[in-house]
């Protein structure tokens, strides 16, 4: 059944119906369409279109339909409905009779589909964000396993300078971190509700669109009805984000295809992600990586298709825009699948350390070290570069590495070269000199990735130039990864609309004697210090960061609803605040707690409570239900590069 037949004398041809219908694609938005319909029923009830009893009947029928769809979404495909909106309305009419026909009052399929798609994107974006964080974690784990493995670094696919395998892994951690930033930006911009924009000119009913947006979990409502129904920037942005990330995944895949080749032999893929040949029994092919590399083009194609569809498209809605979903759904499915496969690849990768070391020792990768040595002897770098080029030519002619040339042979090119040159030409020396922030110093990467313990982080810079920077920078990677995981679990900065939820949560736990009470006015005036955790749009946890002075802050009021306990929300809140502390350039974060073992797992260490300033102790007076002697002071040294 179509929703628009009254204007027409004849039925559409079956050929056109097949060409026009979108149900085989947009059935994936069934839950979002039902959720939007429930919110719309409430909105039209508030303006008197339906009465209390009708609202209850519609809501109950829609909730029942939602459960049915969640249990069996494929049932929708058995219908000949034009699209998911038609299908939901048909089902509703079957359940409620003529009442179901009232629901569409003041609403158009134009603002309906725009809302459904944004709701779907918000939900899917959360899954993608978590997949990216898991991928980062897999690369961190691989770096942990291969932290001291020497690997030849390449430029122009020619051996250039030695690096560590851990350093190679961390390069992809950085790439995926930028992907996370792009995804979060895109999700923020799409978090505005088009519902109530009508077909193009806005609804004729006095709907409170901001309240409606909040009911659906949106940040706010759109500001222009023409733009709202015709905007597909969020589709393009998500496709662009997916495409850039697939570039990174394809580079990761290509590196490993090369490293896995017989010519390199640096790694071996797990059997779980490899296949064989139907003809050659000896073959073990890196098919997972080749497919990741190949699927990048598929995602790029979806982006190109959407850009082309939207180019020069007149306002407002046009049927061309029905093409927005198929490519988007496929691209985001593909991206998520590739990320999950990349995790499987990384988890099962076996590195041939002797082969990577031998390769790093070949190709005159220490030539730059010889040039730097000559610079240390007061030879200008350009002249040193020329001298070393001649030395390399001589070594090639003799088929020996630079370090096998005798001191007499080396001095033929410069009398500044002395016996101490050989200590600069080893792999260890080459790696250990890269101690500046972002470098590949093996010992520093190893220590930072192995433990990230406070002893390393508190190490003095004196006598070890650059060492502290590397260690701190790598702790920042872990700290940032934890913060990204927190964001993926829907932890965010608090807003004024969260005040009542925060007040209720803190009072509930204060009444139990677990924390100090917080007055509502206190929360209002310090709302910028609070973060909240959400599940399905509901605030289930909160915490705050109270700043005492330029370098010191305290984490307070970490509380979670009873029904949301043991889901990682508390840890996510703390990790989010630690990253916030880093961004604020704080150096020390403290807690006063009765559960020190919990905070110890998050990187906090015990300190003498008496070492804290008197005002801190006064501000954090223990609950009347607790023994003051059981309260423990702990600190976290924030990873800063300064």
From TrEMBL:
InterPro entries named among the record's database cross-references: Acyl_CoA_acyltransferase, Arg_succ_lyase_C, Argininosuccinate_lyase, ASAL_AGS_AcTrfase, Fumarase/histidase_N, Fumarate_lyase_CS, Fumarate_lyase_fam, Fumarate_lyase_N
Pfam families recorded: Acetyltransf_1 (PF00583), ASL_C2 (PF14698), Lyase_1 (PF00206)
Keywords attached to this entry: Acyltransferase, Amino-acid biosynthesis, Arginine biosynthesis, Cytoplasm, Lyase, Multifunctional enzyme, Transferase
Principal location: cytoplasm
EC numbers, comma separated: 4.3.2.1
Entry-linked PROSITE patterns: FUMARATE_LYASES (PS00163), GNAT (PS51186)
Primary gene name: argH
Catalytic activity: 2-(N(omega)-L-arginino)succinate = fumarate + L-arginine
Signal peptide bounds: none
Gene Ontology molecular function: argininosuccinate lyase activity
Subcellular location: Cytoplasm
Protein's organism: Colwellia echini
Protein name: Argininosuccinate lyase
Lineage, broadest ranks: Bacteria, Pseudomonadati, Pseudomonadota, Gammaproteobacteria, Alteromonadales
Keyword tRNA-binding: no
Domain N-acetyltransferase: 489-629
Source domain of life: Bacteria
CDD domains: Argininosuccinate_lyase, NAT_SF
Annotated pathway: Amino-acid biosynthesis; L-arginine biosynthesis; L-arginine from L-ornithine and carbamoyl phosphate: step 3/3
Family that this chain belongs to: Belongs to the lyase 1 family. Argininosuccinate lyase subfamily.
């Amino acid at each position: 059944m179509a929703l628009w037949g009254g204007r027409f004398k004849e039925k559409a041809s079956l050929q056109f119906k097949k060409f026009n219908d979108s149900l085989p694609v947009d059935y994936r938005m069934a839950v979002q369409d039902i959720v939007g319909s429930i919110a719309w029923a409430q909105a039209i009830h508030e303006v008197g279109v339906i009465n209390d009893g009708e609202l209850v009947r519609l809501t109950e029928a829609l909730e029942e339909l939602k459960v049915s769809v969640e249990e069996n979404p494929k049932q929708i495909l058995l219908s000949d409905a034009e699209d998911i909106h038609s299908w939901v309305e048909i089902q509703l009419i079957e359940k409620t009779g003529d009442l179901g026909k009232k629901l569409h009052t003041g609403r158009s399929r134009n603002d309906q589909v725009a809302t459904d798609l944004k709701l779907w994107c918000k939900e899917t974006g959360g899954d993608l964000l978590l997949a990216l964080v898991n991928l980062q974690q897999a690369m961190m784990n691989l770096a942990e396993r291969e932290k001291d493995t020497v690997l030849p670094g390449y430029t122009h696919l020619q051996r250039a300078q030695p690096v560590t395998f851990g350093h190679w892994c961390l390069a992809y951690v950085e790439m995926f971190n930028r992907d996370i930033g792009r995804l979060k930006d895109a999700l923020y911009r799409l978090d505005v509700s088009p519902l109530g924009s009508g077909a193009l000119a806005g609804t004729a009913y006095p709907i409170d669109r901001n309240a409606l947006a909040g009911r659906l979990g949106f940040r706010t409502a759109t500001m222009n009805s023409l733009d709202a129904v015709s905007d597909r920037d969020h589709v393009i942005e998500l496709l662009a984000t997916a495409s850039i990330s697939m570039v990174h995944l394809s580079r990761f895949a290509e590196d490993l295809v090369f490293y896995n080749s017989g010519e390199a032999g640096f790694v071996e893929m797990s059997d779980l992600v490899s296949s064989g040949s139907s003809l050659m029994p000896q073959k073990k092919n890196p098919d997972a990586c080749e497919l990741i590399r190949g699927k990048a083009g598929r995602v790029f194609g979806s982006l190109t298709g959407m850009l082309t569809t939207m180019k020069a498209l007149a306002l407002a809605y046009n049927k061309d825009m029905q093409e927005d979903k198929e490519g988007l759904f496929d691209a985001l499915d593909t991206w998520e699948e590739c990320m999950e496969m990349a995790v499987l690849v990384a988890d099962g990768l076996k590195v041939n350390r002797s082969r990577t070391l031998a390769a790093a020792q070949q190709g005159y990768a220490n030539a730059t070290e010889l040039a730097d040595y000559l610079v240390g002897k007061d030879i200008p770098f350009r002249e040193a570069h020329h001298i070393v080029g001649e030395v390399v030519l001589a070594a090639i002619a003799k088929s020996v590495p630079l370090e096998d040339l005798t001191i007499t042979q080396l001095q033929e090119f410069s009398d500044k070269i002395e016996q101490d040159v050989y200590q600069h030409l080893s792999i260890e020396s080459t790696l250990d000199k890269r101690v500046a922030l972002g470098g590949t110093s093996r010992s520093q990467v190893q220590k930072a990735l192995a433990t990230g313990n406070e002893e390393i982080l508190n190490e003095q810079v004196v006598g070890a130039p650059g060492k502290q920077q590397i260690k701190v920078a790598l702790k920042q990677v872990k700290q940032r990864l934890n913060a990204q995981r927190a964001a993926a679990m829907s932890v965010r900065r608090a807003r004024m609309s969260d005040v009542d939820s925060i007040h209720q949560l803190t009072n509930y736990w204060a009444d139990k004697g677990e924390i100090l009470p917080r007055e509502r006015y206190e929360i209002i005036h310090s709302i910028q210090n609070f973060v909240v955790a959400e599940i399905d749009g509901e605030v289930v946890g909160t915490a705050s960061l109270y700043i005492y002075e330029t370098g010191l802050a305290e984490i307070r009021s970490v509380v979670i609803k009873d029904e949301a306990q043991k889901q990682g929300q508390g840890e996510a809140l703390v990790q989010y605040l630690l990253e916030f502390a880093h961004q604020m350039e704080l150096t020390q974060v403290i807690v006063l707690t009765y559960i020190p073992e919990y905070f110890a797992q998050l990187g906090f260490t015990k300190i003498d409570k008496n070492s804290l300033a008197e005002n801190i102790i006064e501000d954090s007076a223990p609950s009347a239900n607790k023994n003051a002697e059981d309260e423990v002071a702990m600190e976290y040294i924030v990873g800063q590069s300064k």
